[in-house]
């Protein structure tokens, strides 16, 4: 825990919520590949932090919390079982997947929480020849960049303003009324998945013409996670 108080987690409820999250992705047609559980890595359910997809390239990260580094091997193994996926392992600095927000062929990377400038530099050098632009942005009020902001299918960045260091770094920024409303998983051009604990934001997004699927992830929010962290999407 970094920004929240440590509280007791209801493991049964967490399992039920995780199963419903997986089912929600399956229901909209995603095929699920599981990363094997590792009991010694209690944060490993937040699998997003261990790899980031750029086209068919999976960048295996160097998590900012040293206790989370052993998680990467399991993700690498699961990715190795998928066809057409190339992998690259970051070798310097630190970088968590939760700090990487991709919009088009630009990746905004939060620096300050778990990710440092060295990790961002290596990522930028490696991705430049592949046509990706990497832009470092400050993060100081939350754990990861995507704890503060995510993006709608049309590229509009949404965030709960009190937790966003500098909304002006994004081309289009839309403030949302709830902290949990800042996190969406883009399912397709007109559908997003989000936590059910941000009903006003869900309404706001529906009014913009989006279909919103809601899931209960309260136990993971108490661990400083959100909807994006529980999966790595390969498109
Ligand atoms: C951690 O501190 O690393 C976990 N308790 C939470 C990680 C959440 N991951 C994410 O937002 N991408």
What this model shows, in words?
The chain is built from 6 helices and 12 strands. With 235 residues, the chain is α/β, with parallel strands linked by helices. It has a single domain, classed as L-arginine/glycine Amidinotransferase, Chain A, CATH 3.75.10.10. The radius of gyration is 16 Å and the shape is globular. The two termini are 31 Å apart. The mean pLDDT is 97.
Largest sheet: 3 strands, mixed
**Sequence of strands across the biggest β-sheet:** 1-2-3
Beta-strand segment tally: 12
- How many H/I helices? 6
Shape: globular
| Molecules bound to protein | citrulline
User: In percent terms, what proportion of residues is strand?
Assistant: 15-25%
CATH topology: L-arginine/glycine Amidinotransferase, Chain A
CATH uppermost class? Alpha Beta
Q: Distance N terminus to C terminus?
A: 31 Å
Based on the coordinates given, report the CATH architecture.
5-stranded Propeller
* Domains, number: 1
| Computed Rg | 16 Å
Q: Please trace the helix and strand order, writing H or E for each element.
A: HEEHEEEHEHEEEEEHEH
CATH superfamily: L-arginine/glycine Amidinotransferase, Chain A
| Weakly predicted, low-confidence segments | none
The helical percent reads 10-25%
The average pLDDT score comes to 97
Structural class: alpha/beta
Could you give a short description of this structure?
The chain has helices spanning 11-27, 71-80, 117-127, 145-148, 199-207, 218-221; strands at residues 51-54, 57-60, 86-89, 100-103, 106-111, 133-138, 149-151, 157-159, 173-175, 184-188, 191-195, 211-215. By secondary structure, the protein is α/β, with parallel strands linked by helices. The protein contains 6 helices and 12 strands.
